[in-house]
Every structure is written in C-alpha cells, then in structure tokens.
Amino acid sequence: MGNDKAANFVIERSEKPVSSDERVALLENPAFGRIFTDHMATIRYTEGRGWHEAKIQPRTAFELAPQTRVLHYAQEIFEGMKAYRLPDGGATLFRPEANARRLQNSARRLAMPSLPEQLFLESVRELVRADRDWIPTAEGSALYLRPFMIATEGALGMNPSSEYLYCVLASPVGSYFKGGSSAVTLWISENYTRAAPGGTGDAKCGGNYAASLAAQAEAIREGCDQVVFLDAVERRWVEELGVMNVFFVFDDDSIQTPPLTGTILPGITRDSLIVLARDLGLTVREEPYAIDQWQADAQSGKLREAFACGTAAVVTSIGKVKGRQRAFEIGNAETGPVTERLKTALLEVQQGRVEDRNSWLDRVF
Ligand SMILES: *Cc1c(COP(=O)(O)O)cnc(C)c1O
C-alpha cells in the first residue's frame, strides 16, 4: 500500500478495491446513491487545533459514540456535485468553488467551523483522482460527490460541538433521461412549509430534508412525484421543490425564478441556468411568483413551460400541478422547447462539448 502525498492529503489506497469486472457490472445501471467507490476523503477538526488529518482512505464505517452530537441535534451540512467525463477521457468538476463557498455559508448557519476553500477543492479532486475508474462513461452519467460535515463530540450539552468530521463520498450515477424526458407532477403542500424567514432554508443541512420527508410522502400519496413548497408567511409565493429550484417560462420567451431571500437554497444549477439563459438572449427575472398567478397563467397560455433544476436530476420539466383545491396542466404537459434548450446548453458545458466561456470547468485529470 503506497502512501502518496497530495499537497495536504495523505493517500491511503484500498488494499481490497472492487475488482474491475465487478466495477464494470456495477457501473452499468447504478441507482442513485446506492453504489459507492473504493475510497473516501476525510478531514478532522478540533477546537484549538483546527483542521487536520486530511486523508484519502479506503471507504469504511465510522465509529461514533451513541452520545455523538450529530445523532441528537442534527448538526450536519452537506453538498452535492458531480465529476463528468470529458470527450478526451479526462474528467472535470463543475464550479466546485461555488460548492466550497456554499458549504462555508451552511457551516456559518449551523455554527460549524468553516472549511477553507482550498481544502474542499483538494478533497474532491483527490478523491476523483483516486477513484477515476469509477466515473461512468455512458451519456448523461457522472460520478456524484457528496461532501458533508458532522458534529462528532460525544456530549449532550446544548452548545456547538468542539469536534467535527468532514467527509466526501463518491457514487456513480446513471442518466436521468433514460427513455426520454417525462414531465413530473407536483403536489402543492398546504400542511407543511419548508423554510421560514430566519430559519435554515438557505443552508444545505440534513435537517431541512428530514423536515420535508412527510410533505414528500404526502405528495406520493396524492399521486404526485414531488412536493412544491409555498412561503411560510403568506402561503402564497412559490418557493422551491424539496430538492430542486423552480423556473417558469412565458410566451414572450422570458423566464422567471423566485429570488433568493433567505428561505430558498441557492442552487448552483439555478445560477448557471440564469447565466446561460441570458447568453441565449432570454430575459430572466428573479421575482416572486404567486401560486394563483401560476394557475391563471398556465390556464391562459401565458405560461408555456415550467421546470425544476438541481445537480442530481439537472433539469426536469413540470407537467401538472395539483393541490387540495386546484389542478392544472402546463402547456401540453411535455418538455417544452425552452426547457430543452437550457438543459442542452448546460449539459454541453458540463460534458466539455462546447467552449467553457464562463470558466466553469475544473479539470481533474
Ligand atoms: C441542493 C439543493 C438544490 C439544488 O442545488 P444545486 O446546487 O443546483 O444542486 C435546490 N434546492 C434544495 C433544497 C437543495 O438542497
């Protein structure tokens, strides 16, 4: 077992990597988040000492005392990003500095230490290099990366932890576009909200997800695919889905997305699509959109398309919207031309098939 040293990382290679035959079989049709690579990145933090023990190591279970803080008070944050294959066989990350900064913002909100951007970038780059054979090559597939941080001090007092563990996992994921792109049906949650002003809506923390599971289960019971949340104060403004931001496309080729006022997660896909849409000559508004207006515009034809976006599923068109007292269709409930154009524009950049005009790619090898 050779230990090479990257700038800050000790690299401990797995002595029992998955065999190449088995790996090839696993990469054929991976379900989201079920298959993981041979290695993981870890860095420890201790108050007074700071960040230390940066490692790429064989992926293994953690040993945590039952009184570990994260298990009781959910002091946990995470990121989601992908490494993409390039046409020449290399691999690239997409805007990883944006993930580094968002993790720092989430850390601030959850009273956790800030991981320096350089350490974050090295952790994901080194993990992708160590597990380079795990990046799938099929069209639309990628290596999903899950950086996260947990409070590891073993004590139940109600104050921030003095110890933390940062870790990155890598998981090959298949294309979301198999068999064409079908539009999803959304359930408007009236019983639940996702985020209140002053809460943690703009932090990427596990607690937000735990709190949205009941709403998502309700959506499934109602025969829908995903839940869409309204604002917590007026129960009127469309905010976002459980895990994706939302866009509206109008008959004058303008597009609109709710503004980042603190209760919406600032998606990197959202931000990238705003830039790409403007590059394509579309007018983009970051303005609130009321649920009644959404229904009226869908019914009058002023609203032509709507879609959700995020790293995992990229761009997913919204075909129908249902709630307790309403149900409406958008366009002909299929993926519309503007949605398709934006999705293609984003994928072309991420897969290195067009010029990277905004310097979004971070080549790993
Ligand atoms: C992660 C996430 C998104 C999408 O963010 P991307 O950076 O585009 O992947 C949107 N909404 C919520 C609630 C999220 O957690």
Overall description:
Belongs to the class-IV pyridoxal-phosphate-dependent aminotransferase family. Keywords: Amino-acid biosynthesis, Aminotransferase, Branched-chain amino acid biosynthesis, Pyridoxal phosphate, Transferase. Acts on leucine, isoleucine and valine. This protein is of the alpha+beta class and 365 residues long. It folds into two domains: 3-173, D-amino Acid Aminotransferase, Chain A, domain 1 (2-Layer Sandwich), CATH 3.30.470; 183-350, D-amino Acid Aminotransferase, Chain A, domain 2, CATH 3.20.10. The protein is built from eight helices and 19 strands. It has helices at 20-28, 69-73, 96-109, 117-130, 206-221, 268-279, 291-300, 337-350; strands at residues 3-5, 10-12, 39-46, 50-58, 76-78, 81-85, 91-94, 142-151, 163-173, 184-188, 226-230, 238-241, 245-250, 254-257, 283-286, 303-310, 314-322, 327-329, 361-363. Strands 1, 2, 3, 4, 5, 6, 7, 8, 9 and 19 form a ten-stranded mixed beta sheet that branches. Strands 10, 11, 12, 13, 14, 15, 16, 17 and 18 form a nine-stranded mixed beta sheet that branches. Helix 3 crosses helix 4 (117-130) and helix 6 (268-279) crosses helix 8. The protein is globular, with a radius of gyration of 21 Å. Pyridoxal-5'-phosphate binds at residues 80, 204, 240, 243-245, 265, 267-270, 310-311.
